[in-house]
C-alpha cells in the first residue's frame, strides 16, 4: 500500500462518485477504479459498495477513512518537518559558550533576533570550558562554540575560528578601594599586592593565561585566592570584599552598587571573543552563525 492509494480512496469517499473523484485527482476514471479495487484486495475487505446509481461506504470503509485522514495528515506533517529542517526553519542547535559570553552585545543581539526570526528552532545553550567546547565540536555534540582568546585560537582541522569582537580589560573592585578612587586608571603593575579572584583554570583558559602573562611582564605572579566557574560568583566575591578581579566591560551591567570598574592602563590588556564552528553544520546552525556575524556591525 502506498500513500497515493490512501489519497485515491479519500477522494472517492468524499465525493462518493468515481467520476468526480477522478476529476479532482486529474486522472481518468478507469485507472482510479482499478487502484481502489487493488487497495481493497490488499486489505482483504470491501471499502465501497458500488451500484449503477451510487457509491456507498461500508462500515469498514467509514473506519478506514478516519484512519486514512490521520495517516495522510501525519505524512504531510513529516514532509513539512523535513522541508523545514532543510531550510533551517525547524530543528535544534547545540551551542557551547564560556562564562560572560551571553552578556556580550554581539551574542545577545544574535540570540534575540534569531529567536524572533525562527521560533521553531530550539537553541540548546550550554556553558562549557574551552577544552570541552573544542571536544564537543569534534564529536559533533555542539555545532558552534564561543571562546575568549587574545590571539587567534589554534583549532583542529575541520573547525573555523572567526573573530567577533575585542574588548579592553577592566578591574572590578569595591568602590572604596584605593585604586577605585585614584586619579588615574590602574596599570597591571598596580595590582601586584592584590588578592585576585579568577575563573577556574578550565573555564578561564585563554583569558587567565593572558592576564597571568601580563602580570609576568610587570615582574610578578598574581596571588589568586579564589577560583570560580561563573560571572555571578566572580563579582559576588569581589562585592563581598574578598579581592579584585579583571573582566571585560560586558559584565558592567551585573556589578553591585558597592563596586566600580576601572580600565586597565595597558594596550595589551584586551580580550577577544571568537566564534568557532564546524564545517558541514546544519542549515539552522548556519543561519544562526550568520546572525552572529551580522551582529558584529
From TrEMBL:
The protein's matches in InterPro entries, at most eight in alphabetical order, are given as: LysR_HTH_N (IPR000847), LysR_subst-bd (IPR005119), WH-like_DNA-bd_sf (IPR036388), WH_DNA-bd_sf (IPR036390)
Mind listing the GO molecular function terms for this protein? Answer: DNA binding; DNA-binding transcription factor activity
Give the record's GO CC terms. protein-DNA complex
UniProt entry tagged with the keyword Transcription regulation: yes
The HTH lysR-type domain sits at 1-58
- The answer, when asked if Transcription is one of the entry's keywords, is yes
- Which species is this UniProt entry from? Sphingomonas paeninsulae
Q: What PANTHER family does the annotation carry?
A: LYSR FAMILY TRANSCRIPTIONAL REGULATOR, TRANSCRIPTIONAL DUAL REGULATOR HCAR-RELATED
> Which Pfam families does the record cross-reference, listed alphabetically?
HTH_1, LysR_substrate
Arranged from A to Z, the UniProt key words for this protein are: DNA-binding, Transcription, Transcription regulation
The family note in this entry says: Belongs to the LysR transcriptional regulatory family.
For this entry, the protein name equals LysR family transcriptional regulator
Amino acid at each position: 500500500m502506498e500513500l497515493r492509494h490512501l489519497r485515491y480512496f479519500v477522494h472517492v469517499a468524499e465525493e462518493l462518485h468515481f467520476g468526480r473523484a477522478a476529476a479532482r485527482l486529474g486522472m481518468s476514471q478507469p485507472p482510479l477504479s482499478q487502484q481502489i479495487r487493488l487497495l481493497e484486495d490488499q486489505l482483504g475487505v470491501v471499502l465501497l459498495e458500488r451500484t449503477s446509481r451510487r457509491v456507498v461506504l461500508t462500515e469498514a470503509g467509514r473506519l478506514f477513512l478516519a484512519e486514512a485522514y490521520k495517516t495522510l495528515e501525519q505524512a504531510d506533517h513529516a514532509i513539512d518537518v523535513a522541508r523545514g529542517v532543510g531550510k533551517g526553519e525547524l530543528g535544534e542547535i547545540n551551542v557551547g559558550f564560556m562564562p560572560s559570553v551571553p552578556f556580550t552585545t554581539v551574542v545577545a543581539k544574535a540570540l534575540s533576533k534569531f529567536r524572533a526570526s525562527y521560533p521553531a528552532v530550539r537553541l540548546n545553550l550550554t556553558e562549557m570550558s574551552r577544552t570541552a567546547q573544542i571536544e564537543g565540536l569534534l564529536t559533533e555534540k555542539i555545532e558552534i562554540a564561543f571562546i575568549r582568546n587574545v590571539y587567534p585560537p589554534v583549532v583542529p582541522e575541520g573547525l573555523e575560528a572567526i573573530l567577533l569582537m575585542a574588548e579592553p580589560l577592566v578591574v572590578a573592585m569595591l568602590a572604596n578601594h584605593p585604586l577605585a578612587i585614584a586619579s588615574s586608571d590602574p596599570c597591571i603593575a598596580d595590582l601586584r599586592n592584590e588578592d585576585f579572584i579568577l575563573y577556574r583554570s578550565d573555564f578561564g583558559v585563554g583569558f587567565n593565561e593572558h592576564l597571568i602573562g601580563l602580570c609576568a611582564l610587570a615582574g610578578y605572579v598574581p596571588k589568586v585566592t579564589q577560583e570560580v566557574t561563573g560571572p555571578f560568583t566572580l563579582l559576588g566575591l569581589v562585592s563581598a570584599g574578598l579581592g579584585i578581579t579583571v573582566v571585560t566591560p560586558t559584565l558592567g551591567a551585573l556589578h553591585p552598587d558597592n563596586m566600580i570598574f576601572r580600565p586597565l592602563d595597558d594596550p595589551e590588556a584586551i580580550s577577544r571573543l571568537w566564534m568557532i564552528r564546524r564545517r558541514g553544520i546544519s542549515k539552522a546552525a548556519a543561519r544562526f552563525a550568520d546572525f552572529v556575524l551580522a551582529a558584529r556591525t
